[in-house]
Amino acid sequence: MTVGSDQGTQGCPPLGTYQEGMDWNPVENVIFHRRSIRSYRKDPLPPGVIRRILEAGRFAPSAGNSQPWLFVVITSPEIIAQMERDALRVVRTFMFLMDYTRSWFRRTFVVHFTKLMTRIFPRLLHPVPFAAMMQMARGEVPVFFEAPAMIVLLKDRRGAADPSLGVGIAGQNMVIAAHSLGVGTCWIGFVRLLCWSRNWFKWKRRLGIGYPYELAEAIVLGWPTERRHGQSPREVLEVPWLEHGADDAPRLERLGE
Amino acid sequence: MRRGSNDWESDMAYLTFWQRMKLPTYLDAREITTGMVEFDRDRCTLCGICARCCPVGSIVVPTTRGEVPHVASGGPDIYLCFACGNCVAACPHHAATLKRRYTTHTYYNRLCRAPEMTYPRRY
Q1: 3-class SS at B71?
Q2: Which of A11, A86, B79, B89 is deepest in the core (most CB within 10 A)?
Q3: Can you list the domains of chain B with their CATH numbers?
Q4: Would you say residue B52 has pLDDT above 80?
Q5: CA triple A8-A13-A17, angle to 5 deg
Q6: Each residue's pLDDT tens digit, A81-107
């Protein structure tokens, strides 16, 4: 075991002194250029790279340092293909029951059932994942993008405060670290579709899901097929700044304009 | 007009009761503003990278020269695009431009946002 405190101090923060309008430093560059990658080369990721990425997740901050996560690495193409098949089957069932866009009949009658389900699961049936599921059922997009590796993030429900948030922080650490190494990643929240699969008990056993662990998210990884990173525009954000007296209204600043 | 919980919030940052209750079908341009991507005819080389990185697989790349890719449509002024900007970021020739942000007008309306879209700014 090495003593960690004084090893590799080169490149440690601070990465320069802040000056107005200065260039992005390497960390900011990685953050602003990271994109979710959705097509991967077939060749497998070396295990060393995956370990390196997991290490970034291991050292993520969490509430009360409770580290409420478990990472399951899947590099077997067979298992990923099985997951894809099961998830797609669930999507097709959902869309058979809920896709109201396909015909006059569905726009008139099925839509009421869809709306009822949307009231019950408002976040799962948000128009964006709904449209994504429609495209998956049509075979336009895969669920796991035929990635050579996957990290399934399990949440320890005994974690302090909000374990889901802890899993998110660990995942983002890994995604940023992976991107800095040239590995493409994509968050796959649709992995939770497996919960509705008829093979769910098989997946529970395979992935070690059971008290206290819950399926939270998955990240697929692989070498991107071509250069994909770049900046994209985002909405201008209205940020209230509370900087004067206690009774004064905040100053609204339009961030990014 | 009644506002949100803070007296300084703009009208945009508040959903009326009916906006919160109404669950529309998203087949009507009055209920949803979808993203919109435009491709520059002069710069596009039909390489197809944009189609491969689109999260909903909705960019259709033509096979004949002189045409530009387009986003699949689900009705008048409704595109299968949620303005993620992946194609804009990935395009090696900077041919794609994001023209519009994605928002729904009721229920899922995102609050306290401005419609303009900008690149990361060096403060």
Answers
A1: strand
A2: B79
A3: 32-104 (3.30.70.20)
A4: yes
A5: 135
A6: 999 999 999 999 999 998 888 888 888
Q: How far apart are CA B51 and CA B71, in angstroms?
A: 9
Superfamily in which the A26-225 domain is placed by CATH: NADH Oxidase (3.40.109.10)
Asked whether the beta carbons of residue A37 and residue B84 sit closer than 8 angstroms, the reply is: no
* Window A:174-193, CB contacts with B under 8 Å: none
Contact A232 B49 (CB under 8 A): no
Amino acid sitting at position A90? V
ipTM score here? 0.83
Is there a contact between B56 and A35 if contact means CB atoms under 8 Å apart?
Answer: no
User: Which has the minimum average pLDDT: A20-29, A117-126, A195-204, B100-109?
Assistant: B100-109
With CA atoms as reference, the chain A residue closest to B13 would be A238
Q: Does B76 touch chain A (CB under 8 A)?
A: no
Please judge whether B49 and A231 are an interchain contact, meaning their C-beta atoms are less than 8 angstroms apart: no
CA gap A192, A218 in Å, rounded:
9
CB contact under 8 A, A236 and B114: yes
Query: Could you say which of B82, B113, B118 has the minimum Cβ distance to residue A233?
Result: B118
Residue found by looking up tokens 């395009």 in the block: B91
Q: How confident is the model at residue B2 (pLDDT cuts 50, 70, 90)?
A: very low
Task: Check: CB of residue B69 under 8 Å from CB of residue B51.
Answer: yes
